[in-house]
Amino acid sequence: QRLNMGAKKPDPKGGKGKGTAPTKSKKEGGGGGKAKKKKWSKGKVRDKLNNLILFDQATYDKMCKEVPSYKLITPSVVSERLKVRGSLAKQALRELHAKGMIKLVSKHSSQLIYTRATKATDE
After folding, report:
1. How much is the pTM?
2. How far apart are CA 41 and CA 19, in angstroms?
3. Residue 12 confidence (pLDDT)
4. Taking a C-beta distance cutoff of 8 angstroms, is the pair 93, 102 a contact?
5. pLDDT tops 50 at residue 122
């Protein structure tokens, strides 16, 4: 009896009106057992940062005026706010430090951390 029942099962799927709809959906899915195959996403696409590679006069003036007032000054913060390259931000911070406008907190090869020069050191 079990063999007969096993043989009867595929017949309704193969013929008759009810069986045609599921077979179509299987073909669309592509897989045999499961209805739909998982599609991999392409991942998030970040917009290209179009940062300046050299200072123009307006950006340079803005940097000299605004950056010394930041509480935390790192190349990444400067790069983000002024829309300049990281390498350019590092050079700018070195220059400001040499002028004494900002104070070095921590020097590490990958990330330099500065803070605004306190008023006691300016006077």
Report:
1. 0.55
2. 32
3. 54
4. yes
5. no
67's tokens: 């950056």
Mean pLDDT of the chain: 75
User: DSSP string covering 74-103, please?
Assistant: -HHHHHHHHTB-HHHHHHHHHHHHHHTSEE
Q: Residue 1: its pLDDT value, please? A: 56
Cβ atoms of 86 and 76 within 8 Å: the answer is yes
| DSSP run (H or E) holding 113 | strand 113-116
Mean pLDDT of 28-49: 71
3-state DSSP assignment of residue 117: coil
For residues 11 and 41, give the distance between their C-alpha atoms in angstroms, rounded to a whole number. 38
Neighbour-count burial of 37, counting CB atoms closer than 10 A to its CB (0-12 exposed, 13-18 middle, 19+ buried): exposed
For the record, the structure tokens of 57 come out as 């006069």
pLDDT digits (tens, 9 = 90+) for 53-88: 888 898 888 888 888 888 888 889 988 988 888 899
What are the residues facing 102 on neighbouring strands?
116
Q: Count CB-CB contacts under 10 A for residue 40.
A: 5
- 8 A C-beta contact, residue 68 and residue 74: no
